[in-house]
Known about the structure:
four-stranded mixed beta sheet, elongated, tRNA methyltransferase, SAM-dependent_MTases_sf, tRNA methyltransferase activity, Rossmann fold, RNA_MeTrfase_FtsJ_dom
Amino acid sequence: MTGIHDVxxxxxxxxxxxALEISLKISKIGGSFIGKIFRGKYTKYVVSMFKKHYxxxxxxxxxxxxxxxxxxxxxxxxxxxxxxxxxxxxxFEVIGCGDGPDSDMTRNLVEKMTxxxxxxxxxxxxxxxxxxxxxx
Length: 136
């Protein structure tokens, strides 16, 4: 996004709020929701907003996500028929999940190798520059 954490967090919360709004219109009673969120000073308000509409709300951090990354996922299950009133804003637990490789672990490689891309860019904007370098 912008690279400015506060601005990115604000835009992301706007997106997840709209996603919740759409989900509430199209999902069935008992339905689920999952969305990407950024952990920040207002995350507990977002979690509280979802708790008004879902029986179970969890904040999950995949193992494959870097530890220093603020990204995580909000998982909601059991959509209520009607919104609950005035759910208290509380701190929440971030639950580690997944069985993918830990992105922060250092792994020993048997040998170094470079893999070529599966497909080349169709019309890259830097093509003229590459052609000129190859011609020299």
